[in-house]
Amino acid sequence: MLTNDDHVVSAKTVAAENITSMIPRGLETVAEFRAHHPMCDATVEEVVGRRIRVGEHWLADFASCNYLGFDLEAEIAEAMTDAVARWGTHPSWARMVASPRLYAEIETELTGLLGAEDSLVLPTISLIHLSVLPAIVGAGTLLVDTRAHHTIHDGARMARAGGATVRRVRADEPERVDRALLAARDFPKVVCVDGINSMTGNPTPLRELAAVTKRHGALLYVDDAHGFGVLGRRTPAEWSPYGSGGAGVLAHLGVEPDGIVLVGGFSKAFSSLAAFVACSTAMKNYLKVAASPYIFSGPSPYGSLAAVLAGFRLNARRGEEIRAGLYRRTADVLDGLAKLGLRTLNTSGFPIIEVPLRDPADVGPVGEHLFRRGVYVTLAPYPVVARDEAGFRIQVTAANTDEEIALLLEAVAEIAHRCARHEPPV
Fold it and tell me: What are the φ/ψ torsions at residue 203 (nearest 5 degrees)?
């Protein structure tokens, strides 16, 4: 006979099985990684520079997207403390109700840096994709790059639910985008892409795409999560090939902002919780009544807003020096991998470096080896990425030390036989 306790245990087991059955087919591997791998869902107990402690294990952190190292800058931390003392911890108002002056100061600085007509600050890029993208497309046509970030595809699903026609395209083949726009009948027409691919570290051909979208009277929607703050305008006086100013991928590639909605964030290079849409003033005013994060969402904390403003000051004073250091460190990693004969997906020299493996099944063992050797990276298992790209991603920051880079390369050398190799020239 079953007791009441047995019924409770049975009910819990059934509930757990039902939840497990909800995992989309193909993502069982990811669920296993999350449940069992030390390089997934880790709890970080302590941070010292770009070293982290997981349990009692110290690791060099090459999974951080704090590219400029602003998360470790004392003057930014002090600005956050001062803002909390003056304003409190959190505004709480949705922006449609009220916005502290910090927002207006950020938008003014940001618009000037980007050379845009206007800008609107919202909490996160993910919220922007889920709200701004459907609001812009309406019942029109949305073309989404097949390799765009997952959160962009989430936004596309929201747009489809709102009546939009959604198609996937290869943004690295502008002629295909051209044909798809020609065939599309529903307006407005929007093409949505990443500025810098979040796995390969390579830029999208934005100059060519901008010419295509303008020819068809379409909008180009660009997610510059990884370019903003790192890349900038190319000038004879630049400190590194990343360019000057940190205005992002459009400036770096010399693409004018007309006809482009640029989405970016402060959570990576500027190490703060806030994001933005750079657009026309007319578009900004429309989004104030159409984008739910502006109308309903809780805003960024005061400390985060103050960190953005302090980041602008630091960027103006030391940004070129910091980016030059980031470029050198990234070049050291790429050169070291090349000397090992390893293939990477990075052809740009930007600080995102994915190393594919020969056998996708090796992602787990390779991650465990790197963890034991004191190196923390981002694992990229199939089907999160294509089978022939399964491997691990290295993100370099200005705060990583030469010693940490040497440790990384030593650890990778020990599993080099598992990594994809450079193809010999024909």
Answer: -80, 155
pLDDT for 33 = 63
User: Strand pairing partners for 118?
Assistant: 279
Can you list the domains of the chain with their CATH numbers? 23-70+319-418 (3.90.1150.10), 92-300 (3.40.640.10)
Helix axes 174-183, 206-215, angle to 10 degrees: 20
Query: What's residue 382's pLDDT?
Result: 85
Burial category of 167 from C-beta neighbours within 10 Å (exposed 0-12, middle 13-18, buried 19 and up)? middle
Cα(406)–Cα(411) distance, rounded to whole angstroms?
Answer: 9
Residue-level pLDDT at 15: 47
Interior angle at CA 78, CA 77 and CA 82, nearest 5: 120
Buried b (16+ CB within 10 A) or exposed e, 237-253: ebbbebbbbbbbbbbbb
* Per-residue pLDDT at 388: 86
Q: Do 38 and 377 touch, CB atoms closer than 8 A?
A: no
What's the pLDDT score for residue 41? 86
Q: Dig out the tokens for 18 from the structure.
A: 């039902």
Cα–Cα dist 75/56, whole Å: 30
The one-letter amino acid code at 165 reads T
pLDDT of residue 120: 98
Q: How far apart are CA 360 and CA 220, in angstroms?
A: 34
Query: Which residue ranges of the chain lie beneath pLDDT 70?
Result: 1-36, 423-426
